[in-house]
């Protein structure tokens, strides 16, 4: 029998960098490989800025460049990064154009898979559910609006209350909720009073072909930090870290972007820190190769409660590259790292403690190798897309009865610290 026809609504998609786009790229491709007819409704690439994608190296996947099943809405370019109001207007414009597409689309879909944030795109998913008479699968990558409060840039109680009401509405209207961190489970169940059985855990992951770390027999011990340098990452911690690494003659490579990047670069220049190598954002493939040419990956999040629930994409990327991780985090990420011995954590976000862990790994190659192997093994056992996509296909098979399958167990393992 034929399989259900699926529409994916997402703001982030190829060729954009970052874990958000990478997540949806893999879901789209692997569902197609499983025999599903899948379409994507998305925007023109703009994260972290649209000019980045004038470089054709980012358009490095021919199957995603020319697919007739990928539909993009044009959004007026706005400099919204430093203005929450303009950012909200930007999100609303995207959602309205997606809404018009859905309302006038002649296609028929059996399921609508919507990824949030942004929350307005998720609301378009609710309308698409009724427009297509389809199942509504809501993919939660970050808790929103909690993450707004977490970065401390938007605390208007009236607006936050409005968004919270909309958030609960979305959870209740969804036929299924997919979460990329177990830390989201209790929050969603408590907030929306939904049955935990309709929530499934599908984390960010790696592809099997990405698990090819470069031989680390290089001359100089090196640390790497990749990804966003924004309001969630605690730039003051990163400043102190690079300064302390310089004192200990340890080199660090930073491949970053975000609102606080220039502040960090100014600090490095003002203090004449010669141990830091700055690289511009690059493709995922190149970033994974660069990771593997280093010895330790650094992860940092600020100490707001909402970040205790997250599982950062860069943590998965470091471990996929066979790196030990040193992290200034708490909550679920800390549990995952410590239980599986894939690195070391400073829950207090203490840069001095992080440097001590880095020195310990530098001076103990055997420990470094054991920790790196633990990282690789954890990815192979629990964080491969080729395995985890089966959770999503089982969900569709159960819903639509297009294939004989064992009864689906949607329950999230509450002790899945792996």
TrEMBL record:
Residue stretches making up the Glycosyl transferase family domain: 212-375
CDD domains with a match to the protein in the record: GT4_WbuB-like
Keywords: Membrane, Transmembrane, Transmembrane helix
Stretches of the chain forming a coiled coil according to its record: none
Top-level lineage group: Bacteria
Domain (Glycosyltransferase subfamily 4-like N-terminal) ranges: 21-204
Transmembrane residue ranges: 88-104, 110-128
Full protein name: Glycosyltransferase family 4 protein
